[in-house]
Specification:
alpha+beta; three-stranded antiparallel beta sheet
Length: about 200
């Protein structure tokens, strides 16, 4: 009897966008690897390949970057899972563990020389941390009026059907949280839209 695949915990549309941006950021200097990754996602979404081939192709592109492999797992159906770590004896070798419905497999993969100089990169965390703090403070400030907080969240979410630049986003949020100038100031500072004195 085949094991049934189960979805993982709920993901938000921005989770996928954030992950793809992390991959793009990592491979800024070697865009061919980012392109391989995107091509695999495209073919999977078009149902041209299944979960197994998708994993193989993502591993081929990302295995040298354990943080990216870990970031890919939430998008896989259970019980699929992939882990990658550096071989302690050879920094150019990854040890990749793959869990599938049929069992567990471990592979040793060599990092392509093109990637030897690309140390794992994380996007700047300070801005992310400050944005999370701002979101939490807006939530606290409007605890008695959750509709304002929901409107704020909706305004900061990217919408591919209605693209806005950062100035438009900040203007929209200023109108939503008009009675909280300290929060507006922090947002303007974070987004780089503060007006000069």
């Amino acid at each position: 009897m085949a094991q049934e695949l189960r979805a993982r915990s709920e993901l938000y549309p921005n989770d996928a966008i954030d992950f793809i941006k992390s991959v793009q950021y990592q491979f800024e200097e070697q865009p061919a690897y980012y392109d391989q990754f995107l091509e695999a996602l495209y073919e999977y979404n078009a149902k041209q390949i299944g979960v197994g081939p998708l994993i193989d192709r993502v591993i081929a592109a990302l295995h040298g970057y354990p943080h990216l492999i870990a970031g890919f797992n939430p998008f896989l159906p259970l019980p699929y899972e992939v882990q990658s770590s550096k071989d302690p004896e050879d920094p150019h070798v990854s040890i990749v563990s793959i869990t599938t419905p049929t069992g567990h497999e471990t592979r040793r993969l060599f990092l392509h020389p093109d990637l030897w100089s690309l140390a794992p990169r994380q996007p700047p965390q300070d801005e992310f941390k400050l944005m999370i703090e701002l979101i939490n403070d807006v939530k606290k400030h409007y605890a008695d009026d959750p509709t304002v907080f929901r409107a704020f969240l909706q305004a900061i979410q990217p919408n591919p059907d209605n693209l806005k630049d950062k100035f438009q986003v900040v203007k929209e949020i200023e109108e939503i949280i008009y009675d909280a100038p300290d929060l507006i100031g922090r947002l303007q500072n974070l987004m780089g839209t503060e007006t000069p004195p």
